[in-house]
Amino acid sequence: MNCKSMILGAAVLAFCSTLQAQDLAKSWIKYFEGNWERESTYTTIRDGEETVEKDELEWTATISAGGMAGYTEGKHQNGTFSSSYMRWDGNAEILTEYGNGSDGWSWSIEFRDVDDKKLEGTITASGPAGKAAGTIVIKKTSENSYQTDWSMKLYGGGEMTGLELNARK
């Protein structure tokens, strides 16, 4: 096998791998489309003190950009709102999400480990409790439900964890 054949073969494999990753990202964006309900438990530990908060959210996701992106809007039981934008980043070959809440929180997620049942990646956030960074895992529990687990270290000390149970309405 000559050098040109090897380079062409590697380029074809990289192209097929990129298309497969893009198709997986699009299938997740499609999965999130529709109306959902979420029950959440958030735990913050700072200076040895633990605070637990419960939340409920109703949210809707719509697909845009030919299935390459999705936009969500939701209303929490306490009256605050949140929205996020998920998209396939072809340059970095990752699924990303950027979001904001009317409660002062914003977040950015990079899902680098994507398969048909699970999204796994890193999350950074900032809000009333400070700035934080950590990991996030989303697992399908059925075609109409999924679970999100995240854990972050607060930059000023402490940690935050979240468990979110989502069900299609």
Structure notes:
- The chain is an alpha+beta fold and 169 residues long.
- The chain has a single domain, classed as Calycin beta-barrel core domain (Lipocalin, Beta Barrel).
- It is built from 1 helix and 10 strands, in the order H-E-E-E-E-E-E-E-E-E-E.
- Strands 1-2-3-4-5-6-7-8-9-10 form a 10-stranded antiparallel β-barrel.
- A hairpin with a 2-residue loop joins strand 1 and strand 2.
- The chain is globular.
- The chain starts with a helix and ends with a strand.
Give me the secondary-structure topology.
Layout: H1 3-32, E1 34-46, E2 49-64, E3 69-76, E4 81-89, E5 94-101, E6 106-114, E7 118-127, E8 130-142, E9 145-154, E10 159-168
Antiparallel strand pairs: 1-2, 1-10, 2-3, 3-4, 4-5, 5-6, 6-7, 7-8, 8-9, 9-10
Question: What keyword list fits this structure?
Answer:
single chain, 169 residues, Lipocalin, ten-stranded antiparallel beta barrel, 1 helix
Total strands: 10
Query: What letter string, H or E per element, gives the SSE order?
Result: HEEEEEEEEEE
Question: If you average the pLDDT, what whole number results?
Answer: 90
Distance between the termini: 56 Å
Count of discrete alpha- or pi-helical segments spanning 4 or more residues? 1
Sheet having the most strands = 10 strands, antiparallel, barrel
Overall morphology: globular
User: How large, in whole angstroms, is the Cα Rg?
Assistant: 18 Å
Helix proportion range = 10-25%
What would you say the CATH architecture is?
A: Beta Barrel
Oligomer: single chain
CATH class: Mainly Beta
Contiguous low-pLDDT stretches (5 residues minimum) are 8-16
- As a percent range, the share of strand residues is over 45%
CATH topology: Lipocalin
Secondary-structure class: alpha+beta
For the largest beta sheet, what order do the strands appear in spatially?
1-2-3-4-5-6-7-8-9-10
CATH H level: which superfamily?
A: Calycin beta-barrel core domain
What's the number of structural domains?
A: 1
